[in-house]
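User: We ran a pulldown and think these components assemble together. Before we commit to crystallization trials, I'd like a predicted model of the whole complex to look at. Sequences follow.
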Amino acid sequence: MNLFAIKMLIGDRAKYLGILMGLTFAAFIITQQTAIFVGIMTRTYGFITDTSQPNIWVMDQKVQFVDDIKPLKDTDLYRVKSISDVEWAVPLYKGLLRARLSNGTFQTCNVIGIDDATLIGGPPIMIEGKVTHLRWPDAIIVNQVGAGDKLSGPPVAPDGPRIPLAVGDVLELNDNRAEVVGICDVTRTFQSQPVLYMTYNRAVTVAPQERKLLSFILAKSKPGISPKKACEKIQAITGLAAYTRDEFKNLTMKYYLKYTGIPINFGVAVGLGFIIGCAIAGQTFYNFTLDNLKYLGTLKAMGASNLVLIRMILLQALTVGSIGWGIGVGGAALFGYVFRNTELAFKLPWELLLLSGVAMLFICMLAAFLSLYKVVKLDPAIVFK
Amino acid sequence: MIITCKGIKKTYVSGTTKTPALRGIDLELNEGELLMVMGPSGSGKTTLISILSGILTQDEGQCLVFGKEINALPERERTAFRGKNVGFVFQSFNLIPTLTSKENVSIPLILNGMERKKALDAAEKLLISFGLEDKLNTLPPELSGGQQQRVAIARGCVHEPGLIVCDEPTSALDSETGIKILELLKNAVITSKRGMVIVTHDARILEFANRIIRLEDGLVK
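Assistant: Here's a predicted model for the assembly, 606 residues in total across the polymer chains.
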């Protein structure tokens, strides 16, 4: 009877498409909204993702997330280096500085100062130039999005395109000359400010003078020592906070989840999508079963047990749910692909596909159970009415 | 004896309102007999065939079908019994519109555990014998009323049930087609010694009956 159940489902094209559209919409909205949420959350720790060489981040105990800078003493770097479980440790400067563009306008930039000797913590992908060019005088590397957008120059013609910042262009950073020697690509940050890379020593020269300027210490655990164990040792000996890369990502994400309105705002959108999806899919599938009640009653009269009918309804729900989920998720993926080069934060990990699959399964089962109740309670005498 | 009923009573209860539908029916049906049940609307005809076919249970009395008190069986067994021993022909055919004639006819066989391919072959043979060889793969909405009822009769007979219950089988058909349908049904009874109960208002088909009973207010008159 399984094949007949499928034929009953798809035989009436109009109703079938109605149910399919409802489920597709539900799958699309759940996946797309959640993917944007995940994308935004990923951006909160984008800088940690980009800084891939160290597996340990050392910072002040009070730091709550990656942009919450509470500078350390320079001597803290040597204390971390001296710990037996640490392979190496390098300084990192991270701060916001105002750049003065050639046309006189100002733009706040995220300045990253990386270790002069090793250049650890440098840009993950170079588009133009080399990371080693940072050792040139006044050198900075700018991220591509920042160079093409907020740091770009005015158009030549009134309605023409803006001129992107290019290698060889010069900026002023806190009254210091800075020459672009490379263009890089970085994971977009939550604040979406342009990112400027320079050497650590240059960064602490350019930055407004403070007693302490060391933002983070990037370290690597020795081979055979787990980063977690090394972190515990660093904390115990130095009294500083030390996190593995994943721990620091989680810390950052939790901060944003707790102290910004993002989860509630997106939760409402995702929840609304889910409810609308449930309502549309449930209603259309329920109506489909009601329309077929006469035939289900006929089958029951002819000897189909409740089990057979339940199996038929579940199969119909799962079939239409799987197809709707596939199209919806495909649509969401296409959406992400089309807008991949825009400001849209969109990330679709496999866990999200699983989540939307489970959500769809829930919707289909809910719709099926609403229908099943009617079918199980169905009086076969309906066939004579 | 196919059916032996004694003192069948059935009352419908809705809230505080009680509506007696059958008030003590005695009835017998022999092998090869075509029994027609007539009566005005509300006389209890549909309730009677529902009980005879094991779809409804009576409140009082005894109803033996093939010697079995089917209404005393648990629902699951009753459903299985119905599937094996009872064939149905409905007033509005009740053919599943998205399945072909052949597929509709094969349903009772599949429900009785026959392999799908064999069931379709058996359905095809029967439909050919019913003169529907060119409509095997046609969907019901594309068939005429008479053709649909022939498919419905084939579906009611295909698993060779001992009892066939028909609810107004000719009411949606013109008189000529109605007569042909009754010939088909009568033939199905004679050739295989089945019992058949037909509920009808249609006086034109009474000549086909071996016996006619008339119900009024839940009693045989």
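The two ends of chain B are 22 Å apart (CA to CA). That may be worth checking against your pulldown data before setting up trials.

User: Thanks, that helps.
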